[in-house]
Amino acid sequence: MEAAAGALSPVLRKLGELLAGEYNLAKRVKKGVQSLRTELEMIHAVLREVGKVPLDQLQEPVRIWAGKVRDLSCDMEDAVDDFLVRVDEGPSSKPTNMRNRVKKFLKKTTKLFGNGKALHQISSAIKEAEDLATELVGLRKKYELDMRSTSNGATIDPRVLALHKDVGELVGVDCTRDELIKTLICEDGSSKEQLKTISIVGVGGLGKTTLTKAVYEKIKAQFNRVAFVPVGQNPDIKKVFKDLLYELDNEKFSDIHNTTRDENLLIKQISDYLVDKRYLIVIDDIWEEEIWRFINCALYKNNLHSRVITTTRNVSVSEACLSSSDDMIHKMKPLSDEDSQILFHRRIFQSEEKCPEDLQAVSREILKKCGGVPLAIITIASLLVSNQRIKQKEEWMHVHSSMGRGVTEGGIAKDMKRILSLSYYDLPPHLKPCLLYLSIFPEDLEIKRDWLIWKWLAEGFIQCDKEETRLFEIGESYFNELMNRSLIQPAEINLDGTVVTCRIHDMVLDLICSLSNEENFVSILDNVQWHAPNLQRNYAKGSAV
């Protein structure tokens, strides 16, 4: 639903420019634009309310109507953009901004709208908008939705950065980390000189990558060469090999991503490079045994105490990673009740000892439903903090009841999707298209913050009511709010606490890809291309960011 509302926003903004008092529009043109804008504003308001209701609670006709609104919005924006091109005087040697282009266009709109074909198109649009508005206007009473105000002035909650800045200090990691380190670097006995592999296995959200990073950061100084390479669900194996080479030696292989070598040559190049190196290599998030077999061919089996760590959700993949009696599997376990409480309270109160007495009981009940899954705990905790202020007890009770049965041992993936969706439906309307937009990116990609904000701007997702406020600054507040809600995670953080790049947890990415497909916001055509009917362009998977 929110994709449709998001598609209307840029159209309303452009129609508002047409109606500005400084432009001398013909009377019939102004009346037509005003009528169209009024109808679209009504639809927009209703869709914003409907967007607060989970899709599975909406009737099919509502989804169909929203799809019509979305298609109409895209067609209208294309028409307005086409008008801009048609009335342009031609190339100019002087640079111009969008506002000046719009003004130039608006001065000529009388002639343009005087064209019979254009008037017919607008009349049809008005009629369709009126029909849709009539059908949609009753939704507020039907669903009894409340209007809620939102704030655009978000800054990043320091508690979020604290959770990610020092991976070695994360809750529940230290003991397991130390056990794995002891296993990896123990060298008593000749067999310990051989290549050793540890495979960490567990469902999504349990913290496999977090634990692995904690181990990696602690021991990497003891090795000649190190690499941490994510794989993901549908990997390009040549890119994985190139990433591995670049991680091992970014000076020697600085141009590796611009080469056209095949898999066999890349495997030989990696193996030859590792032959005399004591290396530590992490292969993160492997989904298929065949992918591991490819990668394993490149890892030279020297006797220099080299170590490999793999992570996977699949037990059969973890078993395939074992090739000697020294190799081992580590099965991830949920956090204990004590560690769950520490993580939950640290995210909300900055300390495990500051939970008010009136919230302690509901806090324990919420944690029971989180099932010790760190991603669930952090996501729900972020839902209970708004603009760095703790929500009221009534809202905690509402979140608890909305979690249903919570995370159960037999269906963690499905239960996690339901819990994560609570955060999506709690988003204010202007943030939902921004989050859905992230579905165009592949797994494990580090996305530059500023680049992402400019993309949101280009798509028309960022709205400004006050002329003196810069759109980019509003985009920064959008980014910060998504960060505060733990829907995106910081990847690279400057010394001053500024987030440079972000990433999306693969379970969150699974959710927003599913939502994007359901709302026809972005549809995955195959493992390489996306169809994005609501975006300005289509994207290729794995595009450089």
Automatic annotation (TrEMBL):
Q: Where is the Disease resistance N-terminal domain?
A: 7-94
Pfam (any one): NB-ARC
Origin superkingdom: Eukaryota
Q: Name one GO biological process term.
A: plant-type hypersensitive response
Keywords annotated in UniProt = Leucine-rich repeat, Nucleotide-binding, Plant defense, Repeat
* Domain Disease resistance protein winged helix stretches: 440-512
Q: Name one GO molecular function term.
A: ADP binding
Q: Where is the NB-ARC domain?
A: 191-352
List the InterPro entries: Apaf_helical (IPR042197), NB-ARC (IPR002182), P-loop_NTPase (IPR027417), RX-like_CC (IPR038005), Rx_N (IPR041118), WH-like_DNA-bd_sf (IPR036388), WHD_DRP (IPR058922)
The family classification in the record reads:
Belongs to the disease resistance NB-LRR family.
- Kindly provide the name given to this protein in its UniProt entry: Uncharacterized protein
Organism encoding this protein = Triticum turgidum subsp. durum (Durum wheat)
